[in-house]
Design brief:
Blueprint: E1 2-5, H1 12-23, E2 26-29, H2 30-37, H3 40-47, H4 54-65, E3 74-77, H5 83-94, E4 102-107, H6 110-120, H7 127-150, E5 155-159, H8 164-172
Helix pairs in contact: 1-8, 6-7
Length: about 180
Amino acid sequence: MIILMGVAGAGKSMQGRILADEKGYAWISTGEILRVLVTGKRRQEMLEGKLLSDAEMIRMIDKVLDLINLNEEFIFDGFPRTVKQAEWLMDQVHMGRFSISAVFHLSSSEEVVLQRLKQRGRVDDTESAIRNRFDEYKAVTLPIIKDFRTNGIPVYDIDGAGTPEQVHDQIVAHVQ
C-alpha cells in the first residue's frame, strides 16, 4: 500500500489518480468516497470542514478494502487522518492484512492551498472551511507522519507546491 498524506489542496487526489493510472494500482480516495456516500447532517458538517468520527471512517474504509485485492499494490489517498485511524491501519499491517510500502507526505503552504482550493470551486471550499482543514491537519494528522517513521515505514516528504508533473516525478523516484 502507498499512502498519500497532506492537507486538502496539496495534490493528493491528482497524484493518486496519475500514479494509479500509470502503474495500474487501485486508488482509494477517502474524499471521493465521502462525497458519494455521506448524506444529511453529516454531509453538512463535512462541507463545513469537519471530519467524520474515527469509527465511521474506519468502518467505511474496512468495507472498501473488502472490494480490492490486498495482495496487489494500492493507493490510499486521505487516510489515515487521525492517530486512531493510523493505529487501526498499523494493527491491520501487524495482522498481515496488507503492508505499507511508502508514505508520501505532500506539503504546501497555506497560501498555495487556499489559492488551489478556491480555484477548484467546490461548495465546501470556503475560506473558513479551508482554514479549518489546515488547522485540523496540523493538529491531528501531522503527528501521524512521525509515528509512521518511528514504526519504520518509509516516509517521503514531497514538495506539493510544484506543477503536477514535478510532484509526480518526486513521487515516482521512490516507487518501486
